[in-house]
Amino acid sequence: MARLADYFVLVGYDPGKRGSGDGQGQILQRFPEKDWEDNPFPQGIELFCQPSGWQLFTERNPPTFFVAVLTDINSERHYCACFTFWEAVESAQVLNGEGEEEEEEPSSPVQPAQLFAPKSLVLVSRLDHAEVFRNSLGLIYTIYVDGLSVSLENVIGNLLTCTIPITGGAQRTISLGAGDRQVIQTPINDSLPVSSCSVALLFRQLGITNVLYLFCAALTEHKILFLSSSYQRLTDACRALLALMFPLKYSFTYVPILPAQLLEVLSTPTPFIIGVHSIFQSETQELLDVVIADLDGGTVNVPECVHISLLPEPLLQQTREALSMVLDPELEVADLAFPPSTISASSLKMQDKEIRAVFLRLFAQLLQGYRWCLHIIRIHPEPVIRFHKAAFLGQRGLTEDDFLTKVLEGMAFAGFVTERGAPYRSIDLFDELVAYEVKRMRAEEGNKQKILRHIKELAEKLYKNENPYPAVTMHKVQKPTEGCHLRLHQKPFPRLDEGTVQWIIDQATAKLQTAPPAVKAEKKCMVPSGPPIAAIMERNGNALANSARRLEVVRNCISYVFENKMLEAKKLFPAVLRAMKGRAARHCLTQELNLHVQQNRAVLDHQQFDFIIRMMNCCLQDCTAMDEHGIAAALLPLVTAFCRKLSPGITQFAYSCVQEHVVWTNIQFWEAMFYCDVQNHIRALYLDNNEENHTDEGPQEAKSALEIASEQLRLWPTMSREKQQELIQKEESTVFSQAIHYANRMSYLLLPLDTSKNRLLRSSGLGDVESVSNSFVTNSIAGSVAESYDTESGFEDAESSDVANYVVRFINRFVDKVCTESGVTNEHLKGLHVMIPDIVQMHIETLDAVHRESKRLPPIQKPKLLRPNLLVGEECVMEGLRVYLMPDGREEAAGGNIGGPPLLPAEGAIFLTTYRIIFKGTPTDPLVGEQVVIRSFPIASLTKEKKINIQAQVDQFIQEGLQLRSCTFQLLKIAFDEEVASDSAEVFRKHLHKLRYPQHVRGTFAFTVGQSPKQAMQPKAKEKNPSLRTLSKNLVKNAKKTIGRQYVTRKKYTPPTWEQRSSQHFPEDNEDEISVSEEMDRSTLTPTTTIKPSDKMTINHLVERACCRDYQRMGLGTLSSSLTRSKNEPFRISTVNRMYAICRSYPGLLIVPQSIQDNTIQRISRCYRQNRFPVVCWRNSRTKAVLLRSGGLHGKGVVGLFKSQNAPTAGPSQTDSTSLEQEKYLQAVINSMPHYADASGRNTLSGFTSAHMSSSGEEFGLVLMCAGPQPWVVLSVPEPRQPGELLFPASHIRGGSRAFPVRSPELPALAGPLWLVVEMGFGKPSGPGAVSTGSPRLCSDPGAHWGPGR
């Protein structure tokens, strides 16, 4: 039983709070005055009584009634029935306020007034009985206006003490003590919404198409706004939309009537269903993401930026046809020559239920079979249910449907699973429809008469639920006299006696406390699951994509593999790979492989292992991250079962060879697999208990997990406390053991075989197609990869990151989520977090041994490379690289569609000659293996080249590749073989660019034909089986070679004094002073960077660039050859980076000092992150001060430590050489700035004379560098004259600040060049070379102050 009404409120106009705008309302009286314990009084109710604002009128309006809905903090809805009438108020009372109003004599009659104020009678209830509320408030108004001899206090007290049953189809007759009689019928099932006529009215107002748009928008969580001049229509429209959504429940903001003072709620970012009076329509025009439905005009406006996903076909068309049959039955017979004389039209209430029946059928078709995708992971103490969305979409064949995907991801469906997923509960019409009427609906598709008959049957049940007793006695409620609101001498509504009303409420409350509590009879049962989804797929025919012959080929091939008939298996293998495109063949593969697993282990030889791995990879290549067809789920136990012996004690499992697939990195896949396995173990737990209790009975029929859970929930109240705790502990232990098992499984599939590489952990979404690595790991793992990016420019750092940390974090996130949802104890969860790093580390140690032994296996024999026939005068520039030529879209090479076997993909080699790019190879399909595929086009016709990631073969991993497009309508898509190193591919690209864009027209093939080109140095291919001795020998040899290359040919560089710098001249065309004995390999450099004087067109083209003109405007040099360049210019424009070979993030034209040669720049750039060496980007026109940009210096890595340890002690180390290069470069920048100090120590630029200026007039150069996000000012200082004292004059710094004299008595006498680093940014420099801890700092090596990222 529940109270019909919780509160009665009398709300009136407040003249004392009238301001410049509308007035305000105030609560005059409320009953009861104290809040109910189970239902507090809602705040702000006076706003909803007059949603358009409290206003005074010059004439009496007729009484109005509407129902507003308020939602409290607990998401419970309160229905506020507002009955409003108008009372006369004196003009003086309005103008002077209530404090100055004059009291009238009680006996004097009421004088006609000029203004009328609204007054509202409000009922607040948690029940939605709008008609009963209308009659009750109308009765109270009738007693007041007609002066009936009935006590208003008694009527209100009876109304507040009336209790009715909530559900069960009961009928209750109530009377408020005024000779009235009302019959209240409660719905049979409270889960079905009560709509009365609201749904039919909504379709009459908006039409079929518009309502379907609103329906889809509400399900896909869009913002919906209703506009109308009628408040009751707004409430009915919102109620109708919620009724159409059944069995889903709307869980976002729901305000059918929004007051004017709260219109800013429309700007909320969350979805909502809100109604607003149409007088505020102008204020809704700026809402760009709100679907606006005008009930009065019958229109729905969808903004351009909002995309509403509609129902999938054919459901959308079927729903439209069914609604048309219900709303317009005459449409079917409109074209008949002899239409029937009468057409039976349903009443408005029955038509309302017929429309709801159409939508009920729609949801039954959308969600049929959903219970087969429920995973129950806990039964006790409360059932925990999860829905396998991917499996549901995959089995229904709706993975690409945008509407259903959004619905399943929404909050409404999450609540649907929580409420209706329980296996043991009371059922309603929707459960019966999904379980028992699916076959009937499929059989009646296309038969309109049968569909209409089914709709009418469902409508009868919905009508019966709302009206269990249709032939009941009519209501008897007195109504006021017509025109009573126009009476001139109407007294105001009297003040009620609080004591009388409270006494009635107290008496009724005491009586209820002594009455026995009402027990709600719940008819719980096992919820039927209905037919499985497989029946739906058989009708669609998607499961029959593969013929029985293809499945037989798959079975035969697997049998040959396990029978060691490798020749027979090799013949069938191409056909098997092609058959794997079908889902049935992939399922067949998993089933056949399961037959060969004995005791969770299947040891294979090397050939068998290779065949199985290739088939598994082929199976997984077409799996999406969702794994909607369950292929990866079926292969997951198999990859830990199949293995091979590499050596005594070392076994390689299949999971180490099938890791590069996107499905393993999707945390939703792992959650679904975990829940599925937990459900199986929970089912087995209770099946074992049942077998122990029923050992004498015969074999029982297999029960599903939901059936077992339903039985357990039925028996739960009858169990003892000890038995209940035992079952809870067993279930929790089952979940905990599965969490440990899945932590191991995830480490198997996520840790790469070579853990020294982090290629697997590079997200494929972190860059464009040309720059990303071959990665399948999504942001769930690699989200923290961004931490290793260079903080200055956003480019990826070359240093590898710790793979184990990423995997541990990924598994920890998974464990936290599933264990929290499954009710695992905190102690077990903490133990898992301690255990996971140990599991990962142990597996890494195992993989190291497996990786070492796998490298000793003999390489797979590959076809011999075929050399192409060259033209007369054409010569090879670069030997062939083993590649795969992929299909480019032309049908003649694809085979299948026009008959015959496919010629592509083909395996061969790519050759680079002085004239052409040539591919020559053979098809990978052995049926046409004797054919030769040749593709070529001239290098000069190349128009576009870009890096791509491509799958060379269906059973192989994704490989790096190139896409070459020519103006001769040729396209080469090549994928490099795994034996081709990345360096070799890069060398190929560089030589291709060098030949495509020669320095001069005489470098083209037409002029160089017949000349012997310099053969490009070929990078060595990756060694297949390097031994430890060979590896160490190569490492030491390469290290010695690198160290020897750094020997300096002259003494250490000493910067000149300031007197010498002013008159020093640097050579222009000669080699720079710092030279090394061995230059870089010419094959790795770009073409000559000096523009020849004869190439006038190239120079003119570069000079016309905007950046070049801007450089010349600032006086930063001109673009010309070394012969014509002015010797007096301090800077020059270098073209060393015009092909972006030095630094990809720098422009092609760079400003460098005049004295620095281009080959020196190439060496200096290697010392900085991303090769971003210091370059000038701005120059002050008056002071000639320059602004430089730069990347941070490289930190010393493992290779650097190895080289420095093995460097000979007789000569300087690599660090010394690098430091000299940097010193000379920065010194050249300093020398390029003018001298602004005279002999007297006066700064001729700023007019400031330093008190500590030395007589020699030494001056400091100034350089502003950007190292990461922190800018630094770097000053070069000569040797100090005296120990402990350092002097330098004032220097002008852009921005208003100046340098100042520094004394530090603690400084010792230092020899050699010093660097003063003045901090200008947020962080502070740090490093081993610092002398003092304050700022500025002195150091002998500026690089020591700048660690990684500085």
From TrEMBL:
Residues 7-427 form the UDENN domain. Pfam families: dDENN (PF03455), DENN (PF02141), GRAM (PF02893), Myotub-related (PF06602), SBF2 (PF12335), uDENN (PF03456). Residues 1101-1350 form the Myotubularin phosphatase domain. GO terms for cellular component: cytoplasmic vesicle. Residues 1054-1089, 1326-1350 are annotated as: Disordered. InterPro entries: cDENN_dom, dDENN_dom, DENN_C, DENN_Domain_GEFs, GRAM, Myotubularin-like_Pase_dom, Prot-tyrosine_phosphatase-like, SBF1/SBF2. This is SET binding factor 1. It comes from Accipiter nisus.
